[in-house]
Amino acid sequence: MNHLSPSVPAREPPLSHGVAPGLERATARKMKRGKLDIDATLDLHGHTQSAAFQALAGFLERAAKDGRRAVRVITGKGSRSGGRLGVLQGQVPAWLNEMPMRQWVNAFSYAAAQDGGTGALYILVKRRKSSTG
Length: 133
What we know:
- This protein has 133 residues and is of the alpha+beta class.
- Helices cover 27% and strands 16% of the residues.
- It is built from three helices and four strands; from the N terminus they run H-E-H-E-H-E-E.
- The protein has a four-stranded mixed sheet, with helices on both faces.
- Helix 2 packs across helix 3.
- It is globular and about 40 Å long.
- The N terminus is likely disordered.
């Protein structure tokens, strides 16, 4: 589903599971191992693609404005034949690389097994830039 979002500006390198250019190694390791303190969770089970896109964009925008650092998004694994990814499981990482979401996302990775495994993502939210001096 195409949401006619502009592509990521050239200065923002693309993100993929556990690959985040510029992220501190220790933080990346904590994220991959599920050792982050999760500040908020969004469950997208039962959402259409359009509703999921809108919910995810709003969730990430609020997380960034509220200063939340690590969030979890549950996509579900979907029930696809032949081992293919569920629709949202495949779409959400693509959306995280598109505007408007890319502006709020620093990194993402599959969740640890106890937090949903490949049916969930940890997302590190970018820190807000100070508007003072």
